[in-house]
Each structure stands twice: as structure tokens, then as C-alpha cells.
């Protein structure tokens, strides 16, 4: 299944997505027509059940599709992951039958765009300190607060939003046209410019009971269990970007001549690229192994965190070395690898920073560290 979908995803992404990547970076906007096109290709509901229009396939297949889309465009890949994993997969895993019937088919066909809103201006790494609140109201709740850095926040028809209800995390599904929901300014980012990022606001926005995702007050479970799958699929992003950068760089260094021969004829250049290829293979295998564990229901926190940690560091370092091999051209915005290297930097921060991924691993693997952290007087 994964191999079949790699071929389909690679063919579609190289043909339809890659040619748009220049423009989306320059214009700082997403090519919206792609949602329906990706829907037709069955990319938007890879892990969602077939009865709701999904592919009913594996996390490994989802990783492969996300990697191929990111290889064509980092920006499209990021928005794709926010839609297909952060939103669709969360509804597929936690939604009621009615929620799945109402939202999944349209999200999976690309008629609706999805997003997930967790971060706030004052609550990023320390996400549990969020200030967005839910208050009981007849027939449901009112939602008030502001979320920051929301991928697809401006175009999303369906947003999974985390908020506090009596200090207990609760997740709800917000629909675009609900009164009291509004969108703030678009971020002017250094990379991933085709993936639109917005602040969003809730001003006494009424959320009916039927739009609570999971149980009221039990949103921490929804949030935390979703984060493992999120980190796994996000790891595919830097892997796709590193593959694209290496391909471009082999081509460039094979034709660019200095001192009478191609750059890559210098053993140091060829061996450095060889090292980057083997590093990419290692992090890719790591991520595929984590995906295989997810498919067996065995994906644990530290495996998801370490796969994403290693993929993001490798992605950022590989793409930066590739940019440097383009010399002065690599410093210009005309150079594709310049964009790829800028895009790859996002994965060091987005989806929980590298430090937070290390924290997850340290808490799990180093008992004395974890005990010291939990000792009285520490937080
Ligand atoms: C392009 C983009 C898209 C995004 N999309 C989404 C989205 O769709 N939905 C969503 O909810 N969020 C999204 N985010 C938000 C993202 O998850 C946060 O930016 C990230 O979690 C970091 O939070 P912060 O920016 O508040 O940084 P901070 O938490 O302020 O961290 C700043 C620095 O301090 C470090 N740090 C913090 N605490 C500690 C500590 N205890 N020990 C050591 N170091 C520490 C961090 O690791 C980091 O290096 C997106 C962000 C970006 C840039």
C-alpha cells in the first residue's frame, strides 16, 4: 500500500505541486485549488476510515504521502499535514459518529479545510498554561480567547480548538461561520511562506454540546495522544525537504565547474554529500520504524519525539549544507535550495520545539532527571 501510494503521491506532487512552489513562497499564499485536487487523489484522509471517505490506510502510508508532498513543496506539505493529520486524524480518532459523518467526508474531499489550534501568544512550549476558556451556556459553551501561529487558520472551515473548562483541558470543533470567531493578520515568515499562518480569536463564540471532541474536561487526553501522531507525520516534512535539496545539489555540483572540473569531482564535496545521504537514510528509517509502531498501536512518546527530533535536525543541517554548495547563488531567493533550507528550519520549532522533544525523551529515559523534576519545589 505504501509503495503504491508513494508512486501516486510522487507523480502528483512533482507534476502539480512542485511548479507552484516558487510562486507560493513569493506571494506568501497557499494555492487553494490544491485542496480539491489532493482530495481527488485520496491524500487527505489517509488514516481515516473508508466509511467516511478515507483511505483506511496506515500511518506509514501517511508518512510516505507527506514526505512526497514536502519533497515538492515544504509549504504545501506543512498545510497538508495540519489538515490531514492534526484535524482529520484527530476527528477520526476522537469524534462521535455524528461528528465523523458531518465533517470527515467534506474534509477528505477537500471541500473543507482543516486546522488545529493549541498554541497561544503566552502558551507555546508551556501549552497547558493556555488562557482560552470555555464557559457553560444553555445547550453548550461559550469560547473566549486568542490562538497564535495557526496553520490554515484563515481558510479553515473546521478547527479543533483546545481550551480550559474549569481549568480542565477540553477540545471542541469550531466551524468557520460560528458567530464570535474571527481571523487576525497573516504572519510574514522567513520560510514555509505558502503555508498560511494566522492568529485567530474567539469572542463568546457559542459551541453546541455536539461539537465537543471527546469528553468535556478530558481534552488533555485528546491533545496528548494526538501529539504523538502529529510528531510522527511532521517528521516526514524535513525528510522530504532534505531529499529535494540533495537531488538539486547533486545536479548543481555536477555541472558547476571551478578549477577546471565539476565541484562534485572534489572528493571532499562528494564524500560530504555521501555522508548527508546516509544521514538522511538513517532518519528516514527511524521515522518509518516509528510509523510501523504506530500501525501496531505501539507508538510511545519518546519514539515519536526522537524520530521528529532527529529528522528535524538532519533536515535543517542537510538543507543548509546543500544551500552552501550553491555558493553565492545559494544566498539568493532565486535558488530553490535557498527556499528549501528556509522551509526546513520550521521543523525545529513547529510541532513542539527541539528542546521540548528532548524533554520528553529525558523524562522517559533518565529516571533520576524525572524524579528531580517532580521533587517538591520544582515544576
Ligand atoms: C509556521 C508555524 C506554524 C505553526 N502551526 C501551528 C498550528 O497549526 N497550531 C498550533 O497550535 N501551533 C502552531 N505553531 C506553534 C508552535 O507549535 C510553537 O511556535 C512552538 O510550540 C513553540 O512555542 P513558542 O513559539 O511560544 O516558543 P516558546 O515556548 O516561547 O520557546 C522559545 C524558546 O525557548 C525554549 N524553551 C521554552 N521552555 C523551555 C524550557 N523549559 N527549557 C528549555 N528551553 C525552553 C524553546 O524550546 C524555544 O527554543 C506553529 C508555529 C509556526 C512557527
Question: What would you note in describing this structure?
Answer:
- With 379 residues, the chain is an alpha+beta fold.
- It has three domains: 2-113, Orthogonal Bundle (Butyryl-Coa Dehydrogenase, subunit A, domain 1); 116-215, Butyryl-CoA Dehydrogenase, subunit A, domain 2 (Beta Barrel); 221-374, Butyryl-CoA Dehydrogenase, subunit A, domain 3 (Up-down Bundle).
- 52% of the residues lie in helices and 16% in strands.
- It contains twelve helices and ten strands.
- The chain has helices at residues 2-17, 21-27, 34-40, 59-72, 74-94, 97-109, 219-255, 267-295, 301-324, 336-345, 354-365, 367-374; strands at residues 114-117, 133-137, 140-151, 158-165, 168-175, 181-186, 197-208, 212-213, 257-258, 261-262.
- The strands form two sheets. Strands 1, 2, 3, 4, 5, 6, 7 and 8 form an eight-stranded mixed beta sheet that branches. A two-stranded antiparallel sheet has the order 9-10.
- β4 and β5 (168-175) form a beta hairpin.
- α5 (74-94) packs antiparallel against α7, α7 packs parallel to α9 and α8 (267-295) packs antiparallel against α9 (301-324).
- The mean pLDDT is 96.
Please name the CATH architecture of the largest domain: Up-down Bundle
Determine the N-to-C terminus distance. 45 Å
Task: Please give the domain count.
Answer: 3
Approximately what portion of the residues adopt beta-strand conformation? 15-25%
Q: Give the class from helix and strand content and strand pairing.
A: alpha+beta
Largest sheet: 8 strands, mixed
Number of strands: 10
CATH class of the largest domain, named Mainly Alpha
Ligand inventory reads: flavin-adenine dinucleotide
Show unreliable segments: none
Helicity level, as a percent range? 40-55%
CATH superfamily (homologous) name of the largest domain:
Butyryl-CoA Dehydrogenase, subunit A, domain 3
CATH topology (fold) name of the largest domain = Butyryl-CoA Dehydrogenase, subunit A, domain 3
Silhouette: globular
Number of helices: 12
